[in-house]
Design a protein that fits this description.
- The strands form two sheets. A six-stranded mixed beta sheet has the order 6-7-8-9-11-10, sandwiched between helices.
- The protein is built from twelve helices and eleven strands.
- Helix 2 runs parallel beside helix 4, helix 2 packs antiparallel against helix 5 and helix 5 crosses helix 7.
- The chain has two domains: about 190 residues, inorganic pyrophosphatase (n-terminal core); about 120 residues, Diaminopimelate Epimerase, Chain A, domain 1 (Roll), CATH 3.10.310.30.
- The chain has about 325 residues and is α/β, with parallel strands linked by helices.
- Bound molecules: manganese (II) ion.
- The site of manganese (II) ion has 6 residues, from loops.
């Protein structure tokens, strides 16, 4: 698998790099690590994301060069599609991006990446960033401080700061290597976790007011509506991390955050502790993800949507 990817990299000159909508630390860090690596090889590389870079990731080296619209994809020899289980995850440009001659998929989702024949998919990796690190090492590419900062951010954010079960022995080895190459763990953590806008904390207060518990406190949920966003002047990205607050409550095994994308359309984030598999719960509702962190979309009134999600939880977790 590595050899095919390396052959494409060596034989092509101009690359597009993209990832999923609402990019997270893993998507952005992986994209920018590859961007710096390709540029270091003297290649042309462009990073495209449909959505803007969340402010907290503005410190990532190279993030200022990310574009959000494309006139044409004709000039690209190959495209990296990162952290996507399905090419549709890149958003409105999926068809045009899918028409590029060579598509390289790098992903760590359980059912990831199979839309391309040139793929590096490893569900046991903590993050796409960890796989990117392996690729660069295989190619003998020197990890610069810019690359190290981006990959470290990818790993840090996808492992919930090395707390989730996707954190493996190799994850720490890679993190140690990246620190040795110039990733400043204090600077990165401060930028990601200690730069919250006050608007986000106000919205969080409103969301926490909606908190409910089921199954004797083992399931906890909150919701965020468009109306709440409007009233606080907040953005969708400000809801990031809300579900983790619910998970942090003593006794809660499954945390749910209902986010109203538009009227009667909800994105549901699911988190779990221990061995509870929220990937199965999300899967029942047409979504996916990982054992401890998954998501799905359900349509209907908030009441109906809650009913469906709780039904799926009860169906999957008979022991609750
Ligand atoms: Mn990821």
């Amino acid at each position: 698998m590595f050899n095919e990817v390396i052959e494409v990299i060596n034989s092509c000159a101009t690359f597009l790099i993209t990832a999923h909508v609402r990019p997270d630390g893993d998507a952005l860090g992986s994209e920018l690590a590859i961007y710096h690596a390709l540029r270091g090889m003297g290649k042309n590389a462009v990073v495209y994301n449909q959505d803007q870079t969340p402010d907290v990731y503005g410190f990532l080296p190279g993030s200022e060069n990310i574009i959000h619209s494309m006139d044409s994809v004709n000039g690209f020899d190959a495209v990296f599609v990162l952290d996507c289980s399905d090419i549709k995850r890149v958003g409105n440009e999926a068809d045009r991006i899918g028409s590029i001659d060579k598509i390289i998929s790098i992903d760590h989702h359980v059912s990831g990446g199979t839309f391309s024949e040139i793929l590096l998919v490893d569900p046991s990796a903590s993050s796409t960033g960890e796989i990117v690190h392996r690729l660069l090492n295989r190619m003998g590419i020197a990890i610069t401080a810019d690359i190290a900062t981006n990959i470290y951010t990818a790993i840090l954010t996808d492992t919930g700061s090395f707390r989730y079960s996707n954190t493996g022995i190799d994850t720490f080895r890679v993190a140690a290597d990246l620190m040795g190459k110039g990733a400043d763990c204090r600077y990165i953590a401060e930028n990601i976790y200690e730069t919250r806008p006050v608007i986000q904390i106000r919205l969080m207060g409103k969301a926490l007011d909606t908190m409910e518990f089921y199954e004797g406190g083992r399931v906890g949920s909150i919701y965020v509506t468009q109306e709440m966003l409007r009233r606080e002047g907040a953005l969708p990205e400000h809801t990031e991390g809300f579900v983790d607050i619910v998970r942090s409550i003593q006794g809660v095994e499954i945390a749910v955050c209902y986010y109203e994308v538009s009227r009667n359309r909800f994105k549901i984030s699911l988190r779990s502790k221990g061995t509870v598999d929220v990937e199965k719960i999300a899967g029942k509702l047409g979504g996916g993800g990982h054992v401890n962190a998954s998501a799905c979309r359900v349509e209907g009134s908030i009441k109906a949507v809650k009913g469906k999600v709780l039904g799926a939880i009860r169906a999957v977790c008979s022991t609750l």
